[in-house]
Design brief:
alpha/beta, 508 residues, Helicase, Ruva Protein, domain 3, five-stranded parallel sheet, 16 strands
């Protein structure tokens, strides 16, 4: 993956030599002839590594380095020296330089130094990210959300985070609801306090109350010690109730009381326990529909749904697909000790065209496999596979699309080589077959008076070889025009409050 490398050196010959080396290695070099010019270029952004000469007129390399580290502490800087003075180099390393080499350096030495600089940067960034995640500071700015629908979610989430009102996050499975919940916590005044996540759908029904509210020793069989529930664990912080739609109805009543009163009743406890908890819930179900059918309490729904953040599916935010793919590719390459690889043009096209029914979680898993399976210099389409090993471009169509395609294919094959008249006749006969024989004739045989039964059996007498059984008689309405006409007439039967009636005359 090409990187932008800034060469800061007052010697034009040295700049050209290093430019040629970097271009040959596939990087994009930019040049600055002084410390001041280098700082100006860094200010505009987009620089991955700086090669900095220590000896320059005006602002020297040491001073430039100190300014760079003050402004961009995570930007890797490799210092260059023509004399190899050990004291100067040690001073630069203490100031934040990641490596050094003596000019003129071999292409191999430059390549190794740059590669090491990237590793140091990645490790430092990962450590910083983990520290922020551990302290609950990983927030909206860490999210990949350039699509308009996601930007709207971020804006609303940032505003809602400033208060303690309950928030309901909705969206399909795998869209990142917990990540949004953690970002809300990080943007709130509860940042750094406990964040407790509970999957309501994964708790056995008989343990839901104990898990949420806790229990006293001896409260039930197996309660050998006092247990602090999730509400008490999250006291002072945020409680994230994932899959809230799976919560049993009897527990919904108790959850509602806990939210209203700000206290919980541990199982077997003698008195309620006060808690200060900010509630964020999430579901992939339509809770409003569940309220209508009685599967979810209306009062609890309104209590939780003060602010609703509806996360779009990944297929609805195509602008984020490639950015997420690059992010996961870099993360898992680093986690597995592999060099980062770019996605091929063909692979990027397949990624954007895939439906991603599993959303971001499916994309993450796909890129993890791709990083491990890729053997080329870049990640191509052969490395991008589904969990069953199927190549992404060979994946079967979704259920609806698959049925539609099969039906269209069967229809097209059935009509090949036939005239328009023949096609029309086939369609009429198929309609009679499926609509009349299966849905009308059998019903008539069961419910219409004996006279109609006899008449229908007589009318179908010609098709005994290929017919359908109709009260002991063989009936094939495709046999002759008379039978077809009779069938068409019978189509006019309409079910009344009692029996059937015939439009346009009697069947007899």
């Amino acid at each position: 993956m090409a990187k932008t490398i800034l060469i800061v050196d007052d010697d034009p010959t040295q700049r050209r030599l290093m430019q040629a080396v970097l271009e040959k290695q596939g990087h994009h070099p930019e040049m600055a002839e002084s410390g001041e010019a280098g700082l100006e270029r860094i200010r505009r952004g987009g620089i991955d590594v700086v090669l900095l000469d220590l000896v320059m007129p005006g602002m020297d390399g040491q001073e430039t380095l100190e300014v760079i580290k003050a402004r961009e502490p995570d930007l890797p800087v490799i210092v260059l020296t023509a004399h190899g003075g050990i004291e100067t180099v040690v001073k630069a390393m203490r100031a934040g330089a990641v490596d050094f080499f003596v000019k003129p350096a071999s292409p191999e030495r430059i390549a190794v130094s740059i590669r090491n600089a990237f590793k140091v940067r990645d490790l430092a960034g990962e450590v910083t990210r983990l520290k922020r995640a551990q302290s609950g500071q990983l927030g909206f700015k860490d999210m990949i959300a350039s699509a308009p629908a996601m930007r709207q979610v971020v804006r609303l989430g940032e505003r809602a985070a400033k208060s303690n009102i309950p928030i309901l996050i909705t969206g399909e499975s795998g869209v990142g609801k917990e990540l949004v919940a953690r970002s809300i916590m990080a943007a709130s005044d509860r940042a750094g306090r406990p964040f407790v996540a509970v999957n309501c759908g994964a708790i056995p029904e008989n343990l839901v109350e104990s898990t949420l509210f806790g229990h006293e020793k001896g409260a039930f069989t197996g309660a050998v010690a006092k247990h602090m529930g999730k509400f008490q664990e999250a006291d002072g912080g945020t409680l994230f109730l994932d899959e809230i739609g799976e919560l049993p109805l009897d527990m919904q009543v108790k959850l509602l009381r806990a939210l209203q009163e700000g206290e919980v009743d541990p199982v077997g406890g003698k008195k309620p326990v006060k808690v200060d908890v900010r509630i964020i819930s999430a579901t992939n179900r339509d809770l409003a529909e569940q309220v209508k059918c009685g599967a979810f309490r209306e009062d609890l729904f309104y209590r939780l749904n003060v602010v609703n953040l509806q996360l779009p599916a990944l297929r609805e935010r195509p602008a984020d697909i490639l950015a997420l793919a690059d992010h996961f590719s870099a993360r898992y390459a680093k986690a597995n000790g592999l060099a980062p690889k770019a996605l091929s043009t063909e692979a990027r096209g397949f990624l954007t065209r895939h439906r991603w029914s599993g959303n971001v979680r499916e994309l993450e898993n796909t890129m993890h496999r791709a990083v491990l399976l890729s053997t080329a210099d870049e990640i191509d389409v052969n490395a991008i596979r589904l969990p069953d090993g199927t190549k992404l471009d060979d994946a079967p169509l979704s259920g609806v699309a698959q049925k539609a395609a099969a039906a269209a294919d069967a229809a097209s094959r059935a009509f090949v080589g036939k005239t328009v008249a023949e096609v029309e006749q086939d369609l009429i006969l198929q309609t009679l077959d499926h609509c009349f024989i299966r849905k009308v004739a059998l019903a008539l045989c069961r419910h219409v008076h004996q006279g109609l039964q006899v008449f229908a059996a007589a009318a179908g007498y010609h098709g005994q070889q290929r017919g359908y059984v109709l009260h002991g008689q063989l009936l094939d309405l495709r046999a002759d025009h008379a039978a077809v006409g009779f069938a068409a007439q019978l189509f006019h039967f309409q079910h009344q409050a009692i029996g059937f009636r015939v439009h346009g005359g009697s069947p007899g």
